[in-house]
Amino acid sequence: MKRVLIWVLSLWSIVGIGWSRSEDGLQELKAKDRLLSFLEKDAVSPGANSLMIPLTLIQGAASKGAVCLDGTPPGYHLDRGFGSGSNSWLIQLEGGGWCNTVRSCVFRKTTRRGSSKFMEKRLNFTGILSNKAEENPDFYNWNRVKLRYCDGASFAGEGQNEANQLYFRGQRIWSAAMEELMAKGMQNAEQALLSGCSAGGLASILHCDEFKDMFPSTTKVKCLSDAGVFLDATNVAGGHTLRDMYRGVVTLQGVQKNLPNTCTSQMDPTSCFFPQNLIANIQTPLFLLNAAYDAWQVQESLIPSSADPHSFWRDCKMDHSHCNSSQMLFLQDFRNQMLSGINGFSMSNQNGLFINSCFAHCQSERQDTWYANDSPRIGNKAIAASVGDWFFDRTATKAIDCPYPCDNTCHNLIFK
């Protein structure tokens, strides 16, 4: 049965999508932050028996310059593995958009996305982070880590802005966190999976080979990117919203220093922040989990309010069932672009795919979409089973859904 998730957003929080320099700019930044929060929200609120894992700050990080945007130490949540999973490690990189201007990064410092001062002291571990076999059959007893995201450049920046007291140290945060986790036992891992959602999904692509190189060749290492296939797509007005944003991120935060030279030797740095230009050169086995009609990209990249001043697309953007035939053709073209962008990647036997035709975003951390009785399926196989089959080499997994509206297992996001 089709499951629809409805987020109730006030009108101002949907309209304020562009990075405005007007007096309303602060409200627009708050609106973007709220949209991210809604997209990341767990489907099930923490209950009495929820697994709540405390935040650990990396105390030695500051001396290495590995700090959040505001200079506070970065942090992570670790739940130790047990039994057969004691020597297996799962690292989940938190997502949460990017900041591409001084103004947006200064705002970000006042939130959990830019400062550990505002991070939750305990996080609910669900989905791929759950410690229950019935919720997470293949990874429940592994050492599971959620690395918090507080740099605004997918753990890839290197620089600072002294005038505004901004620290762009994403790469150093990544390195400091990995060093600490290796010292806590990850160096002895028999198996390791680097995962991430949204901006964290992009980070898992950027750092995949680097992660693999940390371990001896005897360790089984793979990577999973959830909702990380951000496309260099044209918006409804013919502009390139995401390319413009990424150019700001890469330039402001010094990301070009940390992009793979297999890409930068052939393309400009901004192009090398797009996964479609990276995935073919990744040597480590990689799994792409993505909704073909990614809800964040529909909202922020394809139909930003700046590209739709007369609100022709507003009803379609908020509820895909309200799209007319020409609008749906535009969204189908976006799906085609995604499939084209991953075509070369999919040819490799070591890689995996689960591209479902849903209006969703981040499906590995949510219990209802990762593994539940009514979770999304392709060919009657849930996401968790597909990822597990691929990681353990039980069977090849190259699952691509037929186009909307053929899939009745989606947990589509509707904005009201």
UniProtKB/TrEMBL annotation:
Q: What class of enzyme is it?
A: hydrolase
Q: Which PANTHER family match?
A: NOTUM-RELATED (PTHR21562), PECTIN ACETYLESTERASE (PTHR21562:SF120)
Residues spanning the signal sequence? 1-20
List the protein's name.
Pectin acetylesterase
Single Gene Ontology MF annotation: pectin acetylesterase activity
Its biological purpose is as follows: Hydrolyzes acetyl esters in homogalacturonan regions of pectin. In type I primary cell wall, galacturonic acid residues of pectin can be acetylated at the O-2 and O-3 positions. Decreasing the degree of acetylation of pectin gels in vitro alters their physical properties.
Nucleotide-binding listed as a keyword: no
